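Quick check before the chapter quiz. The format below is the same one you will see on the exam, so make sure you can read both the input and the output lines.
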Amino acid sequence: MSEKPNETSKRKIYIVDDDEAVRDSLQILAESYDYEPEIFESGTAFLSVADKMEAGCVLLDVRMPDVDGLEIQARLAKANPELAVIIITGHGDVPMAVKAMKAGASDFLEKPFSDDALMDSLERAWSQRNEAAEVKEPGSDNSDNEVLERIEALTPRERDVLDQLIIGRPNKIIAYELGISPRTVEVHRARVMDKMKAKSLSHLVRMALSAGLQLNEE
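Here is the expected output.
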């Protein structure tokens, strides 16, 4: 179970959903974990102030009557790229959520989801933001030849996962693309990180690109 943040580490959550019951439920949950929620009942209302918002995570319903979640996400990428997006979907909207994640969303949650699932997703989103903000990780003395040797030691499936990680795809998208379960992706990802001696995902990407790894994104 996710632990509650400290009082001094409250973080902003922007809840965008046209369903009042969902908004109220998410607000209560966020406040119980010491997050600072801000509520919007429409995509239009949210977009009108999105460019002025401080860093945080957006819980975004994918289907809304005025502007759908994918359009909001596309506009948000230009208005305020510092905001991480978590897509909330109903049954049958998973392909739309996959499209959103390919466009840069941090995660998607299919209704109904548990409190723990939401909190874990928020924590991952914040971790991804922090990781993306890293400029340089000191202490790496890996030569390109050593990195290439580690890549060659990967199994074919581990190499598939590595290729997907380096082009920025999260676990759920990798599972979708490779036709395997998210749990299997997690296992392969852990093995890749271990075999590559990567300290973080950003470290893994830098090593691979420095060694000249060529990737083809479809």
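If your answer matched, good. The two ends are 36 Å apart (CA to CA).
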